[in-house]
Automatic annotation (TrEMBL), chain A:
InterPro entries membership: OapB-like (IPR012017)
Domain of life: Archaea
UniProt name for this protein: DUF2073 domain-containing protein
UniProtKB/TrEMBL annotation, chain B:
Every AAA+ ATPase domain range: 23-176
InterPro entries linked to this entry: AAA+_ATPase (IPR003593), GTP-bd (IPR006073), P-loop_NTPase (IPR027417), Small_GTP-bd (IPR005225)
Protein name: GTP-binding protein
Molecular-function GO terms, alphabetical: GTP binding
Gene Ontology biological process terms in this record: tRNA methylation; tRNA wobble uridine modification
Superkingdom per UniProt: Archaea
GO CC terms of this entry: cytoplasm
Length: 133, 212
């Protein structure tokens, strides 16, 4: 299975690597494994796209861990955009009542803050302008 | 107010306190940087205790550590609601020290950014572990539909915490409370100006209703 991390032998020096991570791959991972995989990719300058988003608890931990890793002149943090939740609020409420931990976001784009010039979202499109520096 | 009514209210307040089995609820004031969280926390604390919570500033991340003001007793309609106010740093996913270098030298900017990141991490941790309700403060002159706001509201909802949205800075010309109501229609939005003290009666009525 291909690794969702930068491989110097495959990455063009002037390119930007995009990791598209399937929901299937994320399903078997613990929350901190997901966060580690995302942030390792972003630290390498990659754009990480999750087919299925994170749970609210995972989003909270992602912010917390990101803050712990910010360092002057090295890593400024992340840009993140997620499609809105489903309009059906009943299902998420039911999910909460039933104790569901499944993410209800459709798709999430995460990248390094210093490389993403703009990250725009509307209901059907997330658009990112990425610099190579 | 007649002597009998005053006495009745006074006795009622004392018995409310004596027979209250609950600890004061910890109400976290969350929101993006520069929404006016500390100004609001100070307004509430000054109105009911006489003391401020922290320093207000136009520079982002002036609040870099969560600060608590305990046992704030808010009186509404003869009963008292006691809360601990927790003023938190503005939540963000990125902090760049160079954004502060116009206001201070590089060493201070780096120190501020480090403290800000620790403060945001702490605020997120508290949200998961240590608050009983949330006042979510938004600048009503800014677009509320940002990823951080959407994520934070989602995190708060997932924890089933009671949340009030405060549309702050209604004194500004560009303010639009409707824009905030439309963005988060599932929650009560209360307009106010923490700086000018506008609409604070409605603010306190709602705090008592939601967190009492």
């Amino acid at each position: 299975m291909p690794q969702a991390t930068n491989d110097d032998s495959e990455s063009p020096e002037n390119g930007v690597q995009i990791d598209l991570i399937s929901g299937e791959r994320m399903q078997g991972m613990a929350s901190m494994e997901k966060i580690r995989m995302i942030l390792d990719g972003v630290h390498d300058g990659n754009i990480v796209i999750l087919e299925e988003g994170l749970t609210p608890d995972e989003e909270s931990r992602l912010i917390e861990v990101t803050m712990a890793e910010i360092s002057p002149d090295e890593f400024n943090g992340i840009e993140i955009e997620t499609y809105p939740k489903s309009d059906s609020r009943d299902s998420s409420l039911l999910g909460r009542i039933m104790g569901s931990e499944e993410a209800d976001a459709k798709l999430t784009v995460i990248g390094p803050a210093n490389q993403i010039e703009t990250l725009h979202k509307d209901e059907t499109l997330i658009s990112a302008l990425v610099s190579r520096d | 107010m007649g002597l009998f009514t005053e006495l009745k209210d006074s006795v009622s307040r004392v018995t409310d306190r004596l027979f209250s089995e609950q600890e004061p609820k910890r109400i976290g004031i969350y929101g993006p940087p520069n929404a006016g969280k500390t100004t609001l926390a100070n307004r509430i604390a000054r109105d009911w205790t006489g003391d401020a919570v922290g320093t207000e500033s136009h520079v982002p991340h002036e609040t870099r550590r969560a600060r608590r003001k305990e046992n704030v007793e808010i009186e509404r309609d003869g009963s008292t609601v006691t809360i601990d106010i927790v003023d938190t740093p503005g939540v963000t996913t990125k902090v760049d020290y160079e954004e502060f270098t116009d206001e201070m030298d590089e060493d201070d900017a780096i120190r501020r950014s480090r403290e800000a990141t620790e403060g945001v991490a702490e605020a997120m941790h508290w949200l998961r572990e240590d608050v009983d309700g949330v006042i979510y403060v938004l600048d009503s002159a800014e677009d509320p539909i940002t990823q951080v706001n959407t994520m934070l509201i989602g995190i708060i909802e997932s924890r089933d915490l009671p949340v009030l949205i405060f549309a702050n800075k209604i004194d500004l010309d560009d303010a639009s409370v409707k824009r905030i109501e439309d963005a988060f229609p599932q929650h009560k939005t209360v307009p106010l100006s923490a700086k000018e003290g506008d609409n604070m009666d409605e603010v306190y009525d709602n705090i008592a209703d939601y967190f009492g």
